[in-house]
Amino acid sequence: MRIVRAALLLPLVLAATACGSDDAPAPQATVSAPPVAPSVLPSTPASAPTGDPATRAAAAVAAMSDTDLAGQVLMPYAYGSDATTVDQGSAAGNQQLAGVNTPAEMIAKFHLGGLILVGFTAKDPTGATNPTTNVENPQQVRKLTDGLQAAARQLPGGAPLMIGTDQEYGIVTRVTQGVTMLPSAMGAGAAGQPKLTEGAWRAAGEELAAMGITVDFAPVADTLGPPANTVIGSRSFGADAKANALQVAAAVRGLEGAGVAAGLKHFPGHGHTSGDSHEGLPVVTQSKAAWTAQDLPPFKSGVDAGAGVVMSGHLDLQAFDKGVPATFSKKLMTDVLRGQLKFTGVAVTDAMNMPPAMKWPPGQAAVRALNAGNDMLLMPPNIAQARDGILAGLKDGSLKKERLTEAVTRILTLKFRTAEKKQPDLSVVASPAHEQAVGALDAASITVLRGPCAGALMSGPVTVTSTSDREVARVTLVRALQAQGFKVQAAGGTVIHLVGYGDKTTDLSPSARVTVMMDTPYLLAAARSPILVATYSSSKLSLTALAAVVAGKAKAPGKSPVAVPGLKRTAC
C-alpha cells in the first residue's frame, strides 16, 4: 500500500526536513485513488562517457547546458512509492511541489541530479516536518530506485541519479521494515569498538546499495554537548570528541566500502546547542578553541576516512561567522571545510525548506548556498524557483559559471564513482551474516549503570511493562526473554520497565526491579530501580542482546558515552 501523509495539507510541504524511527512506524492514514498514467520521458538519452569518474564527469559537464547544470545541483523529495505510477494524493503533492504528477516526470522536467527518499514517523525528532513516506520495504524501494534511475538515464550526460536517504538507525531511520537494524550511534559509542562499528555499517551499506540508495546521510558526526539537545541525542556517538572521531571514521569506512557514499552531518556541529534547526536558527556559542577541540575531530576523521558527502547545518557558529547560518557561510563551507579540512567531495545543504534557509526566496537562497561552497541543494521548497534563481544568477553574474560547473563536476564524479561498484542482490538484506555483524555491536553496547555485573539480573516469572506507545519494543523483549527460558506473564512477575525517546520521569515505574532506557540514558538518573540498564535503541537485535544479559548468559560490556548525574558510566 502506498502511504501518503496529508499530501493535500500543502503547508506541510514547505516544512519538510532532511533529517526517522526507532520502533516500527505508527499506522498512517492513506489516500488511495486510481493510478496516474506513467510519465512520457525523452526517448534518446545522451551517450555516457567512459573512463575514470573524474574524466567522465568533466566530459559530461562540458556537454551540459545551463539548464542541465542547474538541475544537477537539485535534490528534492517526491510523493509516491513508485517512479511512474502514483495515486491521486501523491500526484497532488507533486503538482504543488514541481508541477508534475510522478517522480519520473520531476526528474525529466528539471534534469535533476538527485532525489531524497523520505519517511514520516511520529516518534522521531524530525517527524512532524516530514510530509510523506515513499519507502516501505526493501523490495518496494528497489523497484522505486530502479524506476528513478531509468528516468535519469534519459537525461543529457548519461549520469546516474544520486539517491539519498537518512538511514542513521536509532530514532532516525527511513527504511525500517525487512532490513537489519543497527543500534543507534550512541549504542556504538557505548560499545567503543570501532571494528564492530565498521562491520555493522558495512552490512548497512550493502543493504542500502541493494535497495538502490547511493548516499546515506549518516553518520552523525556531532559531538554531544548539553543533555537538553534532544534533536541530536542518541543520533550522536557521544560526548567525547576523540572517541567519536574513531566511531565516525569506522562508520564511513563501512559505508564507503560497500559502495555507498557516507554523508557526515551536521557540519560544523549541532551538538553544542539546545536549539533545533527544524524550528529556528540554533546559536552555537563556543569559542574557536572549544570548537576545534570538541566539534572538529569527528568531521576531520570522517573526511580523512573518505566520506563522499558532508551536509551543512543551519547553525549560527558565532565564533566564525556570527549571525550567518553555516549553510550560507563561505567562511565555514569554503574556508574551513575545503581549506582547513581539505574536503574534496560533495557538500550538500541540510533541507532548504527548514526555517533558517527560508529567510530568502528559494532562488536567492539557492544562489547564496552555492556561493558559500555547497554543491547540492537538498529539498528546495519550490523546485522551479530554485532552478530559475540559479539561471538568473548566471545571467546577472551573482553566480559564476565556474562555481556551478565546479559543483556539478563534484556531483557527477561522486555519482560515477558509486556506480562503479556492482549492485548487490536483494538477498543480502537481513541476511544471517549481517545479523551476526550487527548483533555483535549490539551485544557490546549493553550497559549496566546500576546493579550486578555477573549472573542473572532476575529470576522467576517476569513482567515487561512500558508506556502504551512502546508496544512493539515490549513484545520484542517478551519474545527475547522467552527464548532465554524466562516465564513471562502479563502481570504479577518481577517487572522490567522500558522507557525511550521522549519519555519523562512520569513514565518511569517506581516498582520496577529493572529499568531499561532505549535512548539517551539521562532519564535513568531519576529511576528508583535497583538495576538500571541502557540499550540506547529498541531494535530487535538490541533487545535480544539485553535478554541475554538479563538471563546471565552474557555480560554487559558497554560504557555510557555521556555522563548521567549520580551514576557511573558503568557499574561493571
TrEMBL record:
Belongs to the glycosyl hydrolase 3 family. It comes from Paractinoplanes lichenicola. It catalyses: Hydrolysis of terminal non-reducing N-acetyl-D-hexosamine residues in N-acetyl-beta-D-hexosaminides. It holds the Pfam family Glyco_hydro_3. Residues 1-20 form the signal peptide. InterPro entries: GH, Glyco_hydro_3_N, Glyco_hydro_3_N_sf, NagZ_Beta-hexosaminidase. The lineage of its organism: Bacteria, Bacillati, Actinomycetota, Actinomycetes, Micromonosporales. This is beta-N-acetylhexosaminidase. Residues 24-53 are annotated as: Disordered. One of its GO terms (molecular function) is hydrolase activity. Its EC number is 3.2.1.52. It comes from the Bacteria.
